[in-house]
Design goal:
Blueprint (H helix, E strand, L loop, with lengths): L15 H22 L2 H32 L4 H22 L15 H33 L3
Length: 148
């Protein structure tokens, strides 16, 4: 399983964004721990709790990033590309909360709680690494150019 260390995020060391990314990583680590050692019932409960946490915390996190982009006049096309990724993950999370498989970025097909948890961990870990390396790094470069 891919590690959820956020070394690609190191440049955000002085901002709330890094702390929020780390909070997401910590929650994912806790789900992984339960998935590796828990019963099916414990995993199902942890998975529901994680999706609930992720749904609310991810909204908070994306608001932080999007406000930063808006406040500093991030280029329109880059802003919309960044926001589109956020919205697709949010829609996937809403589908999961409603008991449906996500269809956009987080491809999860398993019905067994342990396998669903593994698929979510893999999908979200892969997505967040890619998002940080691509979209967030562009935002960081933009902010650094402006001395922010």
């Amino acid at each position: 399983m891919k590690d959820l260390s956020l070394n690609a995020d190191a440049e955000f060391h002085s901002s709330d964004i890094h702390e929020q990314h780390q909070e997401l990583a910590d929650a994912m680590t806790e789900l992984r721990r339960t998935t590796d050692h828990g019963s099916d019932a414990e995993i199902a409960k942890a998975l529901d709790e994680f999706v609930e946490f992720l749904s609310s915390y991810f909204l908070f996190h994306t608001f932080t990033e999007e406000k930063l982009m808006y406040d500093h006049h991030y280029p329109r096309d880059a802003y919309f590309a960044h926001v589109r990724e956020h919205k697709e993950v949010i829609l996937d999370l809403i589908e999961m909360q409603d008991g449906h498989p996500p269809r956009r970025l987080l491809k999860i097909t398993a019905t067994n709680p342990r396998e669903r948890a593994h698929q979510l961990i893999e999908a979200f870990t892969g997505w967040i690494h890619s998002h940080i390396e691509q979209e967030d790094s562009k935002l960081l470069a933009f902010l650094e150019e402006r001395g922010i």
